[in-house]
User: What shape does this take?
Amino acid sequence: MPTEAASSLASQSPSPSQRRAAFGIIGVLCLFALIAAPFANVRLLPVPGFMPAFGALMFVMDLVTTILLLSQSQVDQAAGTGRLGLAYLFSAAIIVPHIAAFPNALMPGSLIGDSASAVWLWFCWHGGFAVLVMRYAIGSGRAERRVGAARIAAVLGVVVVLSVLATGGLSLLPAILQGNSYMGLTRLGGGPLVAVLNLMALLLVVRRWRCRTLLHLWLTVSLVAACIDVGLTLLASERFVLGWYAGRLFSLLTGLFVLYALLREVTFLHVRVQRAHEQLEIIAHLDGLTGLANRRAFDQAVDREWRRARRDGTTLSVIMLDVDQFKSFNDHYGHLGGDDCLRKVGGALRGVLLRPGDMACRYGGEEFVILLPNTNRAGAQAIAERARLAVETMAIPHDLARTRVVTISLGVATARQPLAADSWMSLVLAADEALYRAKAKGRNAVCEAA
Assistant: This one.
């Protein structure tokens, strides 16, 4: 199975519920068509502004669909999705002269050509769209250069040529209108040809992808709507009857379903990118060895808490600590043993913190720091002593230490109502100085900053 479909914008596989929804819609469309077909020629009142509104909606939907498909083609460096984009570009472009030629749509009479021009442009619109979809289905998966400006210009050039032929070259074309009826299109074979082309496009898409992706599932629904559109329009035989109005409705659905699939995939990709960004943010603030917050996360958190303490007049405490005689431990037990020791120390520090706002971080190497918002001297000293005991009672062997087990030394600093001129760095420095005094006392101790 070629991989082009998997790299297209709507590469997501449809869920069972999405498949049921799509096939349910196909059933509803077919049921509506069967009910409407016997009444296709029931005359209804002309609705002022219907055709301009219809044309504007078709143009916008098909143009947005084109932009999404061509953009994905540029990203994937592949022509497959872009070829489908060219089909919708053709549809968006040819709707403009079709509405301009439609009698009394934009002005009394026709802006270009005459009433027969609108019929011929309808024939070119629905036939050309089906041909381009077939080209997409047949050509997908083949190695081919991606869609560029030349192909876009070629499609627009074809629209211009067809528009000129259908307006200025009517004398070269067979007469298809008899009064208000366009049954001449069917008698000449043009109507059946358009119906066959749309049916072939539907069958090729179904055979090629079997609704395996979200895009092709809804493209199938769109092509079902296109076939019904052509069928009801041909049954109607003239404008402003029930079949003709229903055909315009199905034309809108032809563009709507694929646009829905693309916009849904854009939303899906946006959610994935957002989640990936959040995951990267988490990873960027975690120490890979211990699972604690890293130095970057601590710097951001202590700055935030310092500002809050200064604003609210609360206390802020910091505990600096490191593993006693860790260099000798690392040399004796090896780097893997050292890493395992740091992981266990990190787990012990995490276990002594009881409040969500408290934060244990790996500051660097064997040095750690604990941030305690809204914690006074006594509370900080109590947590420091719990941390010291937690590491000591793990009894991690350290043959070169006086205690014969791994221990930590800790320095505690508390700031009350920090002044605007102060910096949180002074608090960290005070805790660091207290840490060195704890080590000077013989290690495995807690010292408080002055």
